[in-house]
């Protein structure tokens, strides 16, 4: 059993290890149970329980641990003590660890150990981390568009341009922001990897970090050592997941983030886990996907040469940009970025249950995709979202299309005139669409000659539109439709038939049957 447990030693195996433990814990010896629980508690966000298991293994069963396992357990213990903000305890344990010279020499050889001796000593006189969560929930406004921006306050200084990035394990500050907020730096050097490459950072100590009505005290962060580090894209900071892992749940809605705290922790019901990097991964269809609000798109590693593909992720159709790879292990991973989160009416990262869920999901399309496909109903459904997430030109294009659909030609013409007056060059090929909308509105009003002139112009680029021109020219002699109301309200007597509702009418003096379908 021990050998089987030890083969499931990486985060993609967390669910299988969870199932194995639930099925077989009763036949495991005590040391094997502890080995299993260290991994499960690590992956499923139970740091206190994990630390207890590590101490039990290293104290009661040292002979049941190989040198590699001892090194791994020292690594995760240092990581979790730092994550929990137990700075004095971390320093005391580190001093005792140094007495085991053989083990300490092995630790010194390790790359990317979670904290340096310099940082441990620098934090040794700091008060422990704590969180003031005065209410059961706190809601914070966010941006409607990528990146997901919100406001935090560090040491009394407000940072309105902070990116909330679930793909970042640590909160990360620019060098300029750290100076402005009087952040104390420890002087160590930490490599921080991103899509821009590897940045150099140092450990910083923040006395208070406020997010909504929540105050985090005595927080460790990363501070970039680079001037104008490109990882921030001109923003003040990245808010990572380290502090938020102690919160019961994060709820994402359009334009807001709600943080919830329960008095009692809910039992585990995992479909996601935390990896060794500190990032959260969702399991779906045999794949593991990084949950990354800081990702501009969603990406999938695949041997498929197609550049984009819609893939089902636990029942949610997701538009992926494909990254070509022939490495089998890499093909089981991907990234779910900002568009995935924004596809839900509401979605939740439940850190108690280690479960991701969502409601009201749609594969969101841009206004241009909806218009190009002729989906005016979809455009109307998405109007609120589009009006808050697109620029002025996009809003005017959307409004012009919807006004035409709703039989408001005068309003449609006003929007097309504004577009042609302000964004003629920016419209590019869409200018034909705008001219066609204007022509249709003019024809609706009976201004067939003016509509025909526009259609003729458009037909030079799109020959099929010559049919519209011909119709307008044929209708020009008749002029605009005129309605004559003899009374304010008219009631029609109808009967229902297979062809629709039937009413009697008189056309050019002749009695006819009209069917309304």
UniProtKB/TrEMBL annotation:
Which CDD domains does this chain map to?
retropepsin_like_bacteria
TM region positions: none
Q: Which organism is it from?
A: Bacteroides fragilis str. 2-F-2 #4
Molecular function GO terms recorded: peptidase activity
In its UniProt entry, what is this protein called?
Answer: Aspartyl protease family protein
Q: Which GO terms describe its biological process?
A: proteolysis
Question: Is rRNA-binding one of the keywords UniProt gives this record?
Answer: no
Q: Kindly state which keywords UniProt assigns to this record, in alphabetical order.
A: Hydrolase, Protease
Keyword Hydrolase assigned: yes
């Amino acid at each position: 059993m021990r050998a089987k447990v030890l083969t499931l030693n990486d985060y993609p195996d967390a669910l299988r290890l969870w199932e194995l433990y639930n099925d077989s814990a009763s036949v495991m010896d005590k040391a094997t149970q502890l080995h299993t629980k260290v991994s499960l508690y690590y992956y499923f966000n139970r740091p206190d329980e994990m630390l207890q298991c590590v101490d039990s293994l290293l104290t009661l069963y040292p002979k049941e641990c190989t040198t590699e396992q001892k090194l791994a357990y020292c690594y995760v213990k240092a990581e979790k003590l730092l994550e929990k903000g137990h700075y004095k305890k971390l320093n005391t344990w580190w001093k005792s660890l140094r007495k085991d010279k053989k083990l300490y020499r092995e630790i010194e050889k390790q790359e990317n150990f979670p904290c340096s001796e310099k940082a441990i000593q620098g934090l040794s006189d700091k008060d422990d981390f704590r969180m003031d969560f005065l209410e059961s929930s706190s809601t914070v406004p966010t941006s409607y568009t990528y990146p997901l921006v919100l406001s935090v306050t560090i040491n009394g200084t407000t940072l309105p341009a902070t990116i909330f990035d679930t793909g970042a394990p640590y909160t990360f500050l620019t060098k300029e922001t750290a100076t402005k907020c009087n952040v104390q730096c420890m002087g160590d050097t930490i490599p921080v990897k991103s899509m821009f490459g590897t940045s150099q950072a140092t450990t910083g100590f923040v006395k208070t970090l406020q997010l909504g009505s929540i105050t985090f005290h005595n927080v460790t962060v990363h501070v970039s050592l680079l001037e104008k580090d490109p990882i921030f894209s001109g923003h003040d900071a990245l808010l990572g997941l380290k502090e938020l892992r102690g919160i019961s749940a994060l709820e994402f809605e359009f334009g807001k983030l709600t943080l919830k705290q329960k008095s009692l922790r809910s039992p585990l019901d995992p479909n996601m886990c935390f990896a060794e990097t500190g990032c959260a991964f969702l399991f779906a269809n045999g794949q593991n996907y990084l949950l990354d609000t800081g990702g501009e798109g969603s990406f999938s590693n695949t041997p498929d040469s197609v550049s984009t593909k819609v893939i089902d992720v636990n029942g949610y159709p997701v538009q992926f940009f494909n990254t070509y790879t022939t490495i089998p292990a890499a093909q089981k991973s991907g990234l779910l970025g900002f568009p995935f989160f924004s596809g839900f009416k509401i979605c939740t990262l439940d850190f108690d249950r280690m479960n991701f869920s969502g409601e009201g999901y749609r594969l969101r399309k841009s206004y241009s995709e909806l218009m190009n496909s002729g989906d005016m109903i979809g455009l109307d459904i998405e109007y609120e979202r589009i009006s808050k997430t697109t620029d002025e030109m996009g809003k005017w294009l959307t409004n012009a299309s919807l006004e035409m659909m709703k039989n408001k030609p005068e309003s449609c013409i006003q929007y097309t005139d504004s577009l042609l007056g302000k964004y003629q060059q920016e419209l590019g090929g869409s200018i034909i669409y705008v001219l066609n909308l204007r022509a249709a509105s003019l024809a609706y009003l009976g201004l067939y000659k003016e509509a025909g002139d526009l259609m003729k112009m458009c037909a030079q680029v799109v020959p099929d539109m010559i049919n519209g021109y011909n119709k307008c020219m044929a209708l020009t002699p008749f002029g605009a439709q005129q309605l004559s109301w003899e009374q304010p309200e008219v009631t029609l007597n109808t009967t229902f038939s297979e062809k629709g509702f039937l009413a009697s009418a008189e056309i050019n003096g002749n009695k006819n049957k009209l069917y309304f379908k």
